[in-house]
């Protein structure tokens, strides 16, 4: 019996990636060389933010999207952190508010002025201290205004109410460093991956672990909720060190994934991106130049390969444009901003559905979450869940948000959550931190030994000079 390929009818089977021309890229940017597994890039309909390489602290650039081309070396930066910046995220409801976290254990909220920065910004409108170690991740709640999640190397996830500028909840169920956080559609559930090789689904307000998977065959790195399909997708590494993805049913006990699929034998981390409007999944590898894309279905085989965008330049990270910032006249359904470290370049990559008609295509642009929050912080903290407020990209996608961020006045020095002062209760050091301390101490010992040997040599020289002076004929 001859093998015949199975034909699938899909409106997205011919989606292709289109790289912007050089004059529409952002050039001359000193992209950070930090090896932390994050994107180091955040974008919305007005600004592009990129973490940069800097000495004596952490900084990032904020560039208006229309200001393409070469960026001057002395372009103003946001540079208030005392340590390297590890993650940045734009507020989904207020386009000029951005959150950043750093190795200096702080989370900071910045307000970018209209038209971008004219000089270096060193003062944040809000500084949040609650973690006892560096903070690696920040995530905004998808439906509630002014609720921010941060994950630190102290194994804790803190939930911040920015209306009062303090942490209101703490999720303390992880036993190692948290690698990734992802919300479901209404923000009632939080999925996390951890260095202890476990996938968890958590109720964020109570901190209770609803489901947990010990991934022995599939070592998880990244997780993403697949919209309202009650499913999760993870990327990770198999027991044979090949990159793979796994699909999980949230309604099951997560003991076994629905499917596991090997991607390739490369070593770079796989970043998953899911578009709930088109049910498309994009996979981009760190250090690769390729972006694979799939269509997610409700029935077997669940995951259908569509095509692959190829590029010779490796990517360090990728920023993703929100739906309301896309060009619907060009049938653009997704847009990446690719960080090319070797060239100091940011390349926009548009994923386009080829259509002959230039009219608005309603079948590829359904109602999508807009820029209006569905809940206030108090409502969400009291237990209310609500789906995001939807908008049409046909008429409303150019509207700007009218919400204004007001920073609270704070003078408290202690941070108490669940009866625990977070700044006083420091967890035990990890093995990597102990090794770093050991090597720093060894370097300090070598430095002191070198100084002592130099002083010994100098003392011997002075003794020899003194002896020569005493034995000279003039002294006799």
UniProtKB/TrEMBL annotation:
Keyword Coiled coil: yes
Superkingdom as given in the UniProt entry: Eukaryota
WD repeat residue intervals: 78-120, 128-170, 171-212
Domain DUF1899: 5-69
Molecular-function annotations in GO: actin filament binding
Coiled coil: 445-472
Gene3D superfamilies from the UniProt entry: YVTN repeat-like/Quinoprotein amine dehydrogenase
Pfam families in the record: DUF1899, WD40, WD40_4
Keywords: Actin-binding, Coiled coil, Repeat, WD repeat
PANTHER family membership: CORONIN (PTHR10856), CORONIN-2B (PTHR10856:SF17)
Family indicated by similarity: Belongs to the WD repeat coronin family.
Record protein name field: Coronin
Species assigned in the record: Anhinga anhinga (Anhinga)
